[in-house]
Structures are given as structure tokens and as C-alpha cells.
Specification:
The protein is α+β, with helices and mostly antiparallel strands and about 190 residues long. The protein has a single domain, classed as NADH Oxidase (3-Layer(aba) Sandwich), CATH 3.40.109.10. The chain contains six helices and four strands. The chain has a four-stranded antiparallel β-sheet. The protein binds flavin mononucleotide. Flavin mononucleotide (FMN) binds next to strand 3.
């Protein structure tokens, strides 16, 4: 498949059929991730693979978060939890914070973002549904997730990657504005 075809095929897929993901496929995602460009070869990423019993503990975290965030919206909590429960695999990607060096820390975040995009493309090629979550049940900015993973103060969550085999229902494709609206040819 050409690179353009791969890029066109990639999309955020949030509905999964619950089937577990084979270990070889998880390893292929991780192998793709670590090829990402990164400043001064710091390789500033770490990946936490959450499945099985750990995923069940994550489900509880997500439910606690949702009940706290939406105390008066039980239907919303239930609907969100359906998605979480049908997700067999979550990979949390973290970036290394360099104390006293904000610029390098930011570059580390960019590198991890590149790694996540590589994983997303690889997931698409492997027929896996994938979405990068930061908000909501992604818990990327929630202290609960840091505690759950026993993250050090030098680790920052860049994304919780929800992964599963897609359901039969097709996800509508998103569209982009034309490049003319997003480009200035500086003269
Ligand atoms: C940094 C980042 C954070 C995101 N956070 C969320 C999220 O919290 N929840 C979610 O459902 N999707 C999230 N997404 C996925 C986007 O919503 C999705 O990529 C966007 O709607 C475009 O759709 P497409 O990826 O299918 O083209 C995130 C994407 C990025 C790059």
C-alpha cells in the first residue's frame, strides 16, 4: 500500500467487538512506534500495555471518573462505559520530562506524538481500530491514571490509545479543509 493510501485509510475508530488483540500485533505496534524521529535520540517514550486483569482495573478507574464527572447523567456514564468495556487493549504512551529544560521536554512530547501516529498507521494496516484519547476516559490528565501506572514525576501521559477489532459498523470518514486555507506561500 502506498503511503498516501495508508494515510487515507487511517481513521479514529472507537467501537470494537471486544476480541482480544494478538501479542504479535501489539509488538508490531510498538516496533512501529519506536522508529519515530526524536531529538538527540533521547527515545523519550514509554508504553504501558493494559489488557486482561489490568484492563479490568482500568475499567474501574474509568467508571469512577465518569461517575464523578457526570453525577446527574447515568445514561452518559453507561454509554461511555459500554465503549470502555468493549476495548480489549489500551496502551498509555508517556513522554520523559526533563527537569529545568522546558524546550527539550516539549520536544520529547512531539517525539512521542510522532510515535503514536506511527502506531495509528500500523494499527490501520493490521486491521485494528485505534483512537488516541486524551480527554474523558482517556484520563491523560487525570491523577488517577498516574497513580494506576505508578508514574514518576518525570513521566507525562501523552495519550491513552484505545485499540480493538472494529465492529461491522463503518465509521464515517472525517474531511479536511483544503490546503489552500491552511497554507501561506511566504514570498
Ligand atoms: C492529541 C489528540 C487527542 C485526541 N483525544 C481524543 C479524545 O479524548 N477522545 C476521542 O474520542 N478522540 C480523540 N482524538 C481523536 C480525534 O477526535 C480524531 O482524530 C478526529 O476526530 C479526526 O478523526 P480521524 O482521526 O478519523 O480523521 C484525539 C486525537 C488527537 C490527535
Amino acid at each position: 500500500m502506498s503511503l498516501l493510501q495508508t494515510l487515507l485509510q487511517r481513521q479514529a475508530i472507537r467501537a470494537y467487538d471486544g476480541r482480544p488483540i494478538e501479542k504479535e500485533k501489539i509488538e508490531q505496534l510498538l516496533e512501529a512506534a519506536i522508529l519515530a524521529p526524536n531529538d538527540r535520540l533521547r527515545e523519550p517514550w514509554h508504553f504501558y500495555v493494559i489488557q486482561g486483569a489490568a484492563k479490568e482495573r482500568f475499567n474501574q478507574l474509568a467508571q469512577d471518573f465518569l461517575l464523578e464527572r457526570f453525577p446527574t447523567k447515568p445514561h452518559l456514564v453507561e454509554e461511555s462505559m459500554k465503549n470502555v468495556l468493549a476495548t480489549p487493549l489500551i496502551i498509555v504512551a508517556t513522554s520523559q520530562i526533563i527537569e529545568g529544560d522546558e524546550a527539550s521536554s516539549l520536544d520529547n512530547d512531539y517525539a512521542v506524538s510522532c510515535a503514536i501516529h506511527s502506531m495509528w498507521l500500523m494499527a490501520s494496516e493490521l486491521g485494528l481500530g485505534f483512537v488516541w484519547r486524551t480527554r474523558g476516559v482517556g484520563l491523560a490528565r487525570d491523577e488517577r491514571l498516574k497513580a494506576f501506572l505508578s508514574l514518576s514525576d518525570q513521566e507525562k501521559v501523552i495519550g491513552s490509545l484505545f485499540i480493538g477489532y472494529p465492529t461491522d459498523e463503518a465509521t464515517p470518514r472525517t474531511v479536511r479543509k483544503p490546503i489552500t486555507q491552511k497554507t501561506t506561500w511566504v514570498e
